[in-house]
Design goal:
This protein is an alpha+beta fold. 39% of the residues lie in helices and 23% in strands. It has ten helices and 15 strands. Helix 1 packs across helix 3 (36-50) and helix 2 packs across helix 3 (36-50).
């Protein structure tokens, strides 16, 4: 087998070892922060690359084939050696350098992360960053990522990470809209207004509010919906209605008086609210480049509660 082919299969061997250790594709996926389909593709690639079946699958359990048993033992030893090498290199490499592949939700990347990147690149001249802005769920191993920024109150158990901040949303309107339409004092009155919402699914027009332990759902309507945060902000500023926005997106426009907060006494909840985490594969020694990035973002974004997530690797 050529070196290039071996290199391409090494990440699949990592997945294979985890499948054997957990006894199932779904549990391996959960611990790795992957999806079961991604794990299945990794095993299929490994078997094709090695030219042998490593697992015997039944409807109830997985069993190693004869060749799979031998391959598992070697793959497990390979991972142990790789871990030892990482620990040694971490002791000697102190200056952050190298490439960081970073995945970030679109609005978070545009409004929260990107504005700080010039300062980060200036502070760490030997570190390069490839930032992918994508709202889909990304897989650290399958998508070959070093770091993922995600909004979640329950990070995947197979990953480690740092709590960066809390993401909250609110409702906003322009001064012109407020002058022409009396602002609601209760969420139910939103039915009388033109509302600007995400528009990707029917549930996007069902807005949820909470106050003093009371939870309230209101179905709103409007003439305009957009699945881009920047577009909704512009629509609100142009007086097209009352729009839903992350508070970090609305902050600048609100401070400058271009928009005003609507129903500030009520907590507006969406599926995109929650804790913002920087997540990475578990390791005893986080590479200096990733440690620099995580600590930099935690400092710039407020550090959340300083909370660290993840098992001991």
């Amino acid at each position: 087998m050529s070196t290039s082919n071996l290199t391409s299969l090494m990440s699949d061997m990592v997945v294979f070892v985890k499948v054997v250790e957990t006894g199932s594709f779904s549990e391996a996926a959960r611990q790795l922060g992957n999806t079961p389909s991604a794990v299945s593709r990794s095993i299929a690639r490994l078997e094709k690359g090695l030219g042998t079946r490593v697992l015997q699958r039944t409807t109830r359990k997985l069993r190693l084939s004869d060749s799979g048993q031998a391959i598992y033992e070697h793959a497990r030893d390979m991972l142990a050696c790789a871990q030892a090498a990482m620990e040694i290199s971490g002791q000697f490499q102190t200056e952050p350098e190298g490439l960081i592949r970073l995945s970030v939700p679109k609005a978070v990347g545009h409004f929260l992360i990107h504005p700080h990147m010039p300062d980060f690149l200036t502070a760490y001249p030997k570190v390069n960053v490839v930032m992918s802005l994508d709202d889909r769920y990304t897989d650290l191993i399958d998508d070959q990522l070093d770091l993922a920024i995600r909004i979640t109150d329950q990070p995947p158990p197979g990953l480690m990470g740092r709590h960066l901040s809390d993401i909250r949303h609110g409702l906003y309107a322009s001064p012109d809209y407020v002058a022409a339409h009396p602002l609601p004092t209760h969420p139910q009155q939103l039915r009388e207004h033109s509302c600007i919402y995400l528009g990707e699914a029917p549930s996007d027009s069902r807005w949820r509010f909470s106050k003093g332990g009371k939870v309230l759902n209101v179905t709103v309507s409007g003439r305009y919906a957009a699945n881009h945060t920047g577009v909704r902000l512009d629509a609100v500023e142009r007086g097209l209605g009352i729009g839903s926005l992350p508070r970090f997106v609305a902050k600048g426009a609100e401070q400058q008086g271009r928009i005003v907060r609507v129903l500030p006494d009520w907590e507006f909840r969406t599926q995109y609210c929650g804790a913002l985490w920087a997540l990475y594969p578990p390791t005893r020694h986080l590479p200096p480049k990733l440690r620099a990035m995580v600590e930099f973002l935690a400092e710039r974004l407020g550090g959340g509660k300083g909370e660290v997530w993840g098992p001991s690797p």
